[in-house]
């Protein structure tokens, strides 16, 4: 009885599914928004208006609706959305979903954290649902993400809202077991992947087939279409059918005709919900930029962390090596808040684990741009700190977009070098409301001295510091925008010292002469961030910062704390002096043997300039006879020293020779003892052996300095030698 009932139920549910799809298709067709129109501009539907079919040929409006329940989507999806806590649509969802549900191609741009993920996951699920896609149909949709972490996050959203659908979905990202993926990939309906991994499957997995693809999605489309992924993406696209729906989303969208041509978009709907908005970043985001000289970046970062130990802080640095160094060094200095690091060279499992931990507890996460795009940290990031300047405005937008997501608030701060001030203009041109502020440097804590001590104590830290130094400079050197990134304007020695390095590492790819020549000494800039870099002596134990951890924390960046008085004091500083004084201290680390001379005002003098200067004031220096006299004296001094050195050397050699003689004698005695025991040895051979056994010495210890070669035969007297020779001759003739 049970079996026929379930069969009946199955048939019933199939027929209701068919009916539902039919209804959805008619409903969608009925209310299709005009191509090119913006559903956001339509008046919102009244909350209690009927939903779906109204009479035989009439359906409710969905363009302009504000709730997910008012959309022409399946019941399964409505349930999934409701259970995941989604009720009202965000602007990008309201604007794009009516077009996307009609099957149109979309180019969607909306601020970070505005809900773009659902704007493409909903159409993907609905397209496959309406096509009655099943396991045996294979890959129906591909969602591409530039990073593994973002792909993983998208997979989570898909699983959550699509849980009532029967589709199979797979996550294809590097760091996962490739062979395992290979076995399942052909049975997946929806693939969420990074471009590299997808291409690997296309190239190597037998029978991997995407020829029936219905929807292609590029999340962070501008990133996926940029030069970094060009080869992979071109190869992937060439293997996909042209007849499909394509959805491109990003906070910083591409409009490049070339890019769109590559994707063969058909009359795409360009949906940019924030085009009229004043700012390109979320309104709830407070953004600051502060001027920080390169050699004070770590001081500033350290002081900032100490001042915000109850926050969740995401810190961006430009390379893996910097991330590792700052993380390792700061960890040893114990700031009083958990520290974590994330970069592309870490194992995938560890990356995921760290992200999970960062989401769960207040901490500081040092990261490269691997976490700059798309990641949605559940409990919210309080601060985004950009220690190294982002490469362009788009990158800035994505980095700060990790905070102030959906309806939460957030704060960000960007450290700018004096040579990077142009970035501020670029941001303002793109309607990004960044407030330029002076940091409160009164309580800036210097860490360079502590770092020097750490480097001396932990030998593995020094190579890290060196690599961090080199990769940072290389990253600046390689940047395209030379108006902002100019390595020749950076104070390289000071930077090296600020990392605690005893000497500035060699930079083969840079012409140091040029750099030193061009290194600006811009005192005005120093006024804004006065130097405070006293070398702190290391404490004998590990607890380098125990005292300072108890200090009252400070909000370095809170403008309220930067009093007028402080600014006035800053401005009255004799800036040149500050800079020179600072240099004097930094130069503690300069290579020994370089003598730096300062004039009365504290300015350094170049050696030749000094000589010229002396020449004008001290005529004796230019008196030729005196100079010659001095040279003669110096020659004499050198001769005497040379002779002394020779004597010492001779003595050393003599001692060595005596030792060797003794050694030789000992060896010979042992040989003789052995020979005495050896009865079979003929006398002549014995004698020959003796001669053979004597060593040849090259004696360079001749007072004339000539080398002599002496056959060491003095152990056998002349008479003995003659006797041996005679014996040999007589034996030959007999
Ligand atoms: N309609 C909605 N109602 C409530 N919360 C939403 C809604 N849509 C999205 N969210 C939430 O908003 C947050 C940001 O969403 P999402 O990650 O999709 O933003 P995004 O625009 O893709 O950001 P980014 O540009 O950084 O990738 C998420 O936590 C998500 O759960």
What does this protein structure show overall?
With 734 residues, the protein is an alpha/beta fold. The chain is 45% helix and 11% strand. The protein has 27 helices and 20 strands. The chain has a seven-stranded parallel β-sheet with strand order 5-6-4-7-8-3-9, with helices on both faces. Strands 12-13-11-14-15-10-16 form a seven-stranded parallel β-sheet, with helices on both faces. It has a two-stranded antiparallel sheet with strand order 1-2. β17 and β18 (604-605) form a beta hairpin. α4 packs across α5 (148-161) and α12 packs antiparallel against α17 (461-478). The longest helix has 54 residues, at 624-677. The protein is elongated. The chain starts with a helix and ends with a helix. Adenosine-5'-triphosphate is lined by residues 86, 88-90, 93, 110, 112-118, 251, 374, 376, 401, 405-406.
């Amino acid at each position: 009885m049970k079996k026929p009932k379930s069969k009946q139920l199955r048939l019933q549910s199939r027929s209701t599914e068919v009916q539902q799809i039919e209804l959805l298709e008619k409903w969608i067709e009925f209310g299709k928004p005009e191509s090119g129109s913006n559903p956001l501009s339509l008046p919102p539907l009244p909350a209690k208006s009927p939903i779906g079919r109204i009479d035989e040929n009439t359906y409710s409006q969905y363009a302009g609706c504000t709730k997910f329940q008012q959309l022409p989507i399946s019941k399964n999806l409505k349930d999934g959305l409701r259970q995941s806590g989604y009720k009202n649509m965000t602007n990008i969802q309201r604007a794009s979903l009516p077009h996307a549900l009609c099957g149109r191609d979309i180019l969607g741009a909306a601020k970070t954290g505005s809900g773009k993920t659902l704007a493409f996951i909903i159409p993907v699920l609905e397209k496959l649902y309406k096509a009655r896609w099943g396991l045996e149909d294979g890959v129906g949709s591909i969602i591409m993400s530039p990073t593994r972490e973002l792909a993983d996050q998208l997979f989570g959203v898909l699983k959550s809202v699509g849980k009532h659908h029967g589709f199979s979905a797979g996550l294809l990202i590097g760091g996962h077991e490739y062979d395992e993926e290979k076995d399942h990939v052909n049975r997946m309906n929806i693939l969420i992947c990074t471009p590299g991994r997808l291409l690997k499957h296309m190239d190597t997995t037998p029978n991997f087939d995407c020829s029936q693809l219905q929807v292609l999605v590029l999340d962070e489309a501008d990133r996926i279409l940029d030069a970094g992924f060009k080869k992979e993406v071109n190869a992937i696209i060439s293997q996909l059918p042209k007849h499909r729906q394509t959805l491109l989303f990003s906070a910083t969208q591409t409009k490049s005709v070339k890019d769109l041509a590559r994707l063969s978009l058909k009359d795409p709907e360009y949906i940019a919900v924030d085009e009229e908005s004043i700012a390109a970043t979320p309104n709830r985001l407070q953004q600051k930029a502060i001027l920080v000289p390169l050699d004070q970046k770590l001081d500033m970062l350290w002081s900032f962390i100490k001042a915000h130990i109850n926050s969740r802080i995401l810190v961006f640095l430009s390379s893996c090596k910097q991330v590792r160094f700052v993380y390792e060094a700061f960890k040893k200095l114990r700031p009083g808040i958990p520290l974590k690091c994330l970069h592309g060279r870490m194992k995938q499992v560890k990356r995921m684990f760290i992200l999970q931990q960062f989401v769960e507890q207040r901490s500081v996460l040092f990261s490269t741009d691997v976490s700059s795009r798309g990641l949605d940290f559940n409990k919210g990031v309080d601060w985004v700190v950009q220690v190294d300047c982002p490469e362009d405005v788009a990158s800035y937008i994505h980095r700060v977009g990790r905070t102030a997501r959906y309806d939460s608030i957030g704060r960000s701060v960007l450290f700018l070098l004096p040579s990077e001030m142009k970035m501020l203009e670029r941001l303002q041109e793109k309607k990004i409301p960044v407030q330029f502020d002076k940091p409160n440097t009164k309580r800036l804590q210097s860490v360079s001295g502590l770092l020097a001590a750490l480097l001396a104590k932990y030998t593995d830290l020094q190579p890290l510091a060196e690599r961090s130094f080199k990769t940072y400079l290389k990253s600046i050197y390689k940047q395209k925008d030379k108006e902002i990134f100019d390595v020749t304007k950076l104070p390289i020695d000071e930077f090296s010292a600020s990392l605690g390095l005893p000497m500035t590492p060699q930079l083969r790819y840079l012409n140091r002469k040029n750099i030193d020549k061009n290194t600006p000494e811009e005192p005005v800039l120093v006024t804004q961030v006065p130097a405070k870099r006293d070398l702190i002596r290391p404490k004998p134990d590990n607890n380098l910062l125990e005292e300072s951890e108890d200090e009252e924390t400070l909000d370095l960046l809170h403008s309220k704390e930067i009093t007028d008085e402080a600014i006035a004091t800053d401005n009255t500083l004799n800036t040149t002096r500050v800079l020179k004084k600072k240099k004097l201290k930094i130069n503690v680390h300069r290579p020994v043997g370089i003598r730096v001379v300062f004039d009365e005002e504290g300015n350094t003098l170049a050696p030749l300039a000094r000589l010229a200067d002396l020449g004008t004031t001290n005529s004796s220096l230019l008196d030729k006879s005196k100079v010659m006299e001095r040279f003669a004296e110096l020659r004499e001094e050198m001769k005497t020293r040379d002779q002394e050195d020779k004597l010492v050397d001779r003595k050393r050699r003599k001692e060595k020779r005596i030792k060797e003689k003794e050694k030789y004698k000992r060896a010979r005695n042992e040989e003789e003892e052995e020979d005495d025991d050896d009865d079979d040895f003929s006398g002549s051979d014995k004698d020959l052996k003796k001669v053979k056994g004597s060593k040849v010495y090259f004696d360079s210890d001749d007072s004339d300095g000539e080398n002599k070669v002496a056959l060491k035969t003095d152990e056998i007297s002349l008479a003995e030698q003659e006797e041996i020779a005679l014996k040999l001759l007589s034996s030959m003739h007999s």
